[in-house]
């Protein structure tokens, strides 16, 4: 079983690895950078709230 420190580190790594790509994708559909930043943040918040489901699906 993983501890919270490992989970936090994994989440941080995923965020750092994918933030720019997610942001670029979203900004191409939005009118402002502020809106794109808000939506990008929302994507990660929702993903991390479901982290335990995602983690189980990949067998980790």
Automatic annotation (TrEMBL):
All copies of domain RNA polymerase sigma-70 region, residue ranges: 14-47
Top-level taxon of the source organism: Bacteria
Coiled coil (UniProt feature): none
Transmembrane regions listed in the UniProt entry: none
Signal peptide as annotated in the record: none
GO biological process: DNA-templated transcription initiation
Pfam families referenced in this protein's UniProt entry, alphabetically: Sigma70_r2
MF-aspect GO terms: DNA-binding transcription factor activity
Protein name: RNA polymerase sigma factor SigM
Originating organism: Halalkalibacter krulwichiae
